[in-house]
Records
---
Amino acid sequence: MTMKRGWIAAAVAAASLSGIGTSAVAESATLKTVQERGTLLCSGHNGSYFGFVEVNDKNEWKGLDIDLCRALTVAILGDPDKNQIVPLSWAQRFPALQSGDVDVVIKATGWTMGRDTELGLQFSIPYFFGGAQLMVRKELGISSASELGGGTVCVAAGTTIERIVADHLKAENVEHTMVSFEKTAEVIGAYKAGRCDAYAAWGPSIAVLLANQFEDADSHVILEDKLSAEPIAAAMRQGDEDWVDIVNWMLAALIKAEELGVTSSNVDEMTANPPNPTVARLLGVDAGMGERLGLRDTWAREMITAMGNFAEIYDRNLGEGSPYKLERGLNNLWSNGGVLYTPILD
Amino acid sequence: MSAAPPTIGGLERLKRRAFHKPLDGLVTLFVAALLAWLAWQAIDWGLLRAVWRAEDAALCREANAGACWSIIDARHRLILFGLYPFDEHWRSTSAAVAIIATVILSCIPWFWTARRLISLWIAGFATYYLLMEGSPLGLEQVTTDKWGGLSLVLFLFSSVVLLGMPMGLGLALMRRSRLPMLRWVASLLIDFIRSLPLLTTLFTAAVVVPILLPDWLQGDKIWRIIIAFSLFFACYQAEVFRGGFQAIPNGQYEAGKALGLGKWQSLGLIILPQVFRHALPATINMVVVTFKETAVVIIIGLFDLLASAQAAFGTGDWVAYYMETYIFVALIYWAFITSLGRYGEFLKDRMKQDDH
């Protein structure tokens, strides 16, 4: 433990001394710390956060954010288990990052201006977009919010959701009645009792609710259109750009792999016989993937072998392979109607 | 029942007390019916219609299903042990048993000498630490961030009381000292800590201290929290002791002097035993409150009983059964706190006997 903090203190000191202008070949101080420690320190939760950070029956962490941490661990250290997931509360995550208790915060964290500037954080490219969504009964035959004309929408009072839904429906010129309730349970009760045609809330939460608190889950549908999008990204300490590069390319490689059709099951095949130069580069058949980040050339291949591409990780934790069955929607590739994209892999 | 006067039978007594006037009778019947109905609801939901086994979890979703205890069956190891590695749970169990045994043994009057108590506690804590951490015994190492659930709560609680009690006594003595410097320092510390919420104190220890202190002074988060929590406990306990000291008339000190006892002798032989007796009810209260307040550590990311309970139902398959989980956790807390309370009663009775 003391070794760890020693290195981090040294790293932080070095980073602040050298200022902004680090040379192009400079190695990330955080990366060096992690490699010498042999363990990556990630953020967990003090409890569970549906689909993102959970604990399974074997007392092990699981979830989308945990899998991303494991992917990062493979990328750096070659083994998904060489990490330590530190349980942190919401309030604690940024101080813990600043004090070196964790190397990166991957914890359903929204990218906001305040965090980016005042808190001295740096964010990765977003890997998830969550926003207000609507649930309706299937029998209404509605497939989009714009068809809700004349309907009643139930929502929890005093939330940002209320305003977002009102703004969206107003902009779409949809006539509607908004009914707000104090507690989430009351909103659900009202929706179940048929007092309203639609229920509005944070998309992933509706999915959890639908999967677990509705006996007739099949007769409801979550409308695909997201009325708002909050970008969820990994947070890091300011001042170590090379570390941000590594986290960014870890996410980019997972998304790129999906785009290129590389999965955990065909990765060996693809390596033996790369269909195009980008795949060859991604899987480390051609050199260039590792050196520029200070990692092994094969890091992305190992990562995909161990964890799968982004689609596999999503399906396992939030999608078809999970109890939530959350549609990809915005979190699909740009080519499939979503907003996920990657920088160019040259 | 034997205490009742022989002339009035049980039925007669009931009649006099509950059915004295027609209105009394109505109220009695109404309340009794209400209680019976509530009890029936609870039994019906919690026992008769309940689903018990993890394999039967699908039955919980049926319309007439009652409590879904399947979640406890499936997830009790998560609730009790937190993130502790699954295959090593016997260690966490034994460690918790060691701590409970230590607490129970030190409640037995035979152990109440300084040497016996100190050796007992050192043995108890060493057993706990060696089992939980593991590496000195050649077992797989489990770092403190993986400690959790009930065994963590027990460890936090007993460390805090164990460290806080002597610290509290020390502070109380300092506050009564004739040296102004000591008195001043103690009052300042006590007033300062008591004016801060526990949460602030713990948050400072967990989050702010690592930013301020050099590495070699920091230690693990769990130790920082135990020290901060103990300090908090000590400051309150010092005031409890102070009340005990104030209840002792000056004559007792003078008597000590008259017997030719030195200052520390008279303190140890005459004053402190009486202070403890006066402070006992308030002390038991402090101890019980401390047991419950350990739940606050969830905020600073320790995986205590409540956090692991939240993790137990915090997954898609079990999210609907939070009520069952909280009832289970409440029963655990209830069992421990009731035992503490009963023990306090025993101590009070025992001290009464000493008076004769």
Note: The domain at 76-84+142-355 of chain B is CATH 1.10.3720.10 (MetI-like fold).
---
Amino acid sequence: MKSLPLGASKAPIKFRMPTAENLIPIRLDIEIDGQRYKDAFTWNPNDPDSEVVSFAKRTVKDLKLPPTFMTQIAQSIQTQLAEFRSYEGQDMHIKEKIVPIKIDLRVNNTVIRDQFLWDVSNFETDPEEFARTLCEDLNIEDPEVGPAIAVAIREQLYEVATQSVSSARETRVGKKGRRGIENVTNSKTGNSALDLLKLFGNKGSVIRKRKEWYLYEPIVDILSNEEVGALDAREELNARLKKKLDEKEDSFQTRYSHG
Amino acid sequence: MMPSSEDDLSRDLYSIPSSSSWFQWDEIHETERRELPEFFDGSAASRNLRVYKEYRDFIINKFREDPSRRLTFTEVRKSLIGDVGTLHKVFLFLERWGLINFGISGGRPRQPEEVGPRVVVEEAGAGVQVVPASSKLASGRSAVAATAAGAGETGFRLPPLSSYSDVFGDWAPGKGPVCAVCGNEGVSGRHEPLIEGGFVVCLKCSKNRNDIEGKSADDNSGHADGNANHATGAWTDAETLLLLEAVLKHGDDWDLIAQHVRTKSRIDCIARLIQLPFGDHMLGTFSGKYDAKNSGNQPTNSKAIQHASSELLPEPKTDGHGHDDVKEKVAEESTPVHPLKRRHIPSIANATDSLMKQVALLSTAAGPHVAAAAAEAAVKALCNEKPCAWKVFDIDEDESRKKLKSFPTKNEPKSAVKVEDQEVEMDKQTDAPELPQKNFSATAFQTKAAIATALGAAAARAKLLADQEEREMELLMASIIEAQMRKIQYKIKHFKELEFIMEKEYTLMQQMKESLLDKWVEVIQQIFQAGIPRWKDHAFPKSLWNNGS
């Protein structure tokens, strides 16, 4: 690819998002006093950190959240930025690698499920554009769906990218448990890259078998408001249960390690 | 007026922008190498020439399965293995060059070509799905290009297939007023005035018409004048092209057509289409370029083509002068001194040449009597509406009768005469608009009558077809019922046989039972006679008795 002037396999490059724009996905899920704030967006890691605070301020003001959220939001963003920066400067060992990306999202009333292949070594890709095309092609009107898809793609790419940083491996494994809730949407990033030779070698056709088409086809459902309400309630319950479980586990672990 | 559906089944024509005429099924063009270098520099295992070709062919074929709807990337990517980013690039590349989604309205608006709307007509196999098939076709075509076109100009592909006449004598070439073969040279010279008339006019070089080439220059200028009269100001070439494209694509859906044209209203579009002369010059774009190109070395080339085509099509019937154009007739009627004409019986494929010819064809299909009745009814209805219209038709009637008389004696075979009858009537109606001495209302009436006749004839034809279908359905139904009946009869017979067997078995059983009983009685009697006390051997006979009863 043009984007890798020296050839990806020869000269490792410094860690970054494997996309045209080096934007990292940020996911917020903050609950204070029974009020919950969930959001997902992309962030330019080169922006000055002061931006984070002002962003938090603006968000709290726009959404009329209690001021306690401000610090939490800023903190969460900072943590995720810091995690990204901990990889920065390290070499990435990405050879040509095509991974399946799975989308399973609910945004407001729209549920979208999809699967497709993504070339992680291509640093010219644009998840936002892909998401936009997808929404245009499917006539999805909700303007929040596109960005949500883009963020979901970025999250999975981010994960793949971190795997390619050698030092990141252990930390990632350790983190997996704690990031349980966040990982609901992108649980299956760990699946291995495809065998390129098998797929693109001289024998096979790159035209997918007809019976597999449905697997790689977006499925969109528009839910009614009642369904959304029910789903929200169930998700909340699940989240709470999980949280409790996590807490228990944590306390058990701490007790165990101390004892 | 639209191409009939049976025509659509027999061929596949796709229009692509002329700027994309480099596209070949079995080759990778320079443009592709330049724009999508990642497939050709061997930088990645997942991208190579073969993969690119498969992507490209699949996407184009997918689009051509139904060229009227917009093909979306999301639809394509589910069937192709590979990085969606790369796939999207290929998709956008093909879309940008008009190889897919060309001329599809809606969705993202596409900017019109600056070069002018030139259209290349490309032929592909009917089952576009299979790539090898299409590549075979392509090679066949190029081979022809080398041999058939004496001029050997690039881009001119004239397959010697018999389908050629079906394909190019038909509607699709009319899509673009400028044909690809015309190319740059086609627009020059005598073709120029025609562009001003509202459309680019190329003369048809259909095989059965080569002999008019000598006259074409005169014809052209004549048409140009006629066209100028028709063009009602505001329509530009591009708009007319859009209109034609839309008509081909959407058929009778005028809302969609108006949407496609954009700058004109629905009514405008209808009015415009009615005004368009549906003569050879509209439809003959493809062949016209041939004329243009070969005007220099006409004798040899036209001869060659004549030769090639003569086996495929019925020879036109000539009567002396050797012109068969509708326009000839126009000229003739305005100057009645000139009675000679040349006509030919249109084959199905060529019948779309003009509205009137199609009417004629329909009427032949429906049978002359039906069509005559339709025409009569149309005229009558019109006369009821406006009594003054009758006069117009009165005059025409006489003329047509005169003409009719002259034909059989000349050179027409008897069978053709009936057709002629219809056609003459139509023809005079077509001619009417161009007659200077007739006032406008008369023309309007005639046009109306013609349209009504067309509808009538079409309806009659449809009725015939429907009747046939119905008969067929009845026949099938009857055969189904018969089959069912036969089945049931077989079953009944079978059951009867079974019953008979059962009965036989039953009687057999009865007989056996009786003989058994007899034997037992005999045995017991013997026992008694032997003097054995009965109670001592109680069990044995008892059980036998039980079994027997």
Note: Strands of chain A lie at 13-14, 24-32, 35-43, 91-92, 98-107, 110-119, 219-222.
---
Amino acid sequence: MKDFGFAIEKPRALDTDKTNRELYTRLLKREPSFARCFQCGMCSATCSARNFTDYNIRRIHTLFRQGQTQELDQMLKACMLCGKCTLVCPRGVNLRHLIIQMRKLLNND
Amino acid sequence: MNRYWNEYQKAIADDHYFYERSCIRQTFFPGSETAFLRILKEELGKDIYDDFRQHTCTGIGYHADIVPIETTMTVVARLFSLMTEHGYTNYVPSCVTSFGVFTEVIHTWQEHPELLEKTREYLYKATKREFEIPTNLVHPSDIIYKFREELAKKMKYRLVNRFTGKPLRVVEHIGCHYAKIFPDKGIGKAEFPYVLAGMIESWGGEVVDYPERRHCCGFGFRQYLIQENRGYSISNTKKKLESMEPYEPDFIVTNCPGCTLFLDRWQYTIAEMEHKTYDKDGYGIPVLTYEEMAGLLLGYDPWELGLQIHQVQAEHLLDKIGIEYNPNDKFKGVSGKIFRKPEKPTILQV
């Protein structure tokens, strides 16, 4: 391969035909209430960790649905499992359990 | 339907044009401008003036932020003064970047008459010249589009695959500065650019409608002028090529020097960097200017049109259309001397 002094970047657009949704499907089996999420963002708005870090549950949900799980394990470590998100969720999603299951799935558990 | 489509048309003068050449086209596609002048003079019998004193419009320097707008306006004014001196009022810049610059400058003068007076003053102080603003500013592709049916009657070949009898599948790409800066200055405006699609349909081909059809070719001036930034440029081009690949186009036609250059040359670079070509046989997708496309169909010699200067070679396309050519003349100069053949790329077939 010749070195031209620059690189070809991959497009950041998602190809939904090639998205790997296997982990998302497994997560839905472990926490079916996740299917009710309509991405209102109340969880992120109330999150204590969100106030002080880049941690964003709504973003994590989106990335997980899209199969972009490469950096999620590191992101999820900011969660203190306080459960405030579960209390405010208008759709009754068990977010605390959901995050625990996400961590397990990302660590092949 | 026609009533609405009329709103997407533009006024194109019938005759008496003042031609301005492009800085980079004469280097990269040396036969295109000559072919355009030949088509207008010999095929259509039009009056077009090509002044040897013309110069840059400053477009590349302007878009690279190294030429201030006042300088650009004065340089544009000098070009207009050449047109005025010869008694023409219809200005035809060969390059889409120039077309964008002239449109922008004229619009600025209309909105700010004080800048027009300043420019007149700068030009007079510097050169003792005076100028009038063109009454009709069009791109050469507009003129070819206007007379496409007339040209179709004179054409020796059609955009039809002679082996299958089916229309050739053609990707058309419009330069961004043709209709995206001032949408009403392009045929079909920015939403339905029809200038090249109209030529393809009139000459027997089939236009390929693919997802990234209106995406930038990748030139973008700043993206390319600094070597470290060229990843932006090639990534854009790759996105387009990947998007059109499944539709198996026979060739690409553009009306902008930057688009022709980058869609053509980056195919070599992508092949060298990623061992990827965008046709079945590894030859790449030929990229033609609209003058080259028209010239080929009119029966002009492909080597006089300068097809050998392109990175992706067009012999396969010529064979498909049934155009006669002499392979031995490919690198023969005007004097009859055979020039040295260029080195072959490692991946891309030629």
Note: The radius of gyration of chain A is 16 Å.
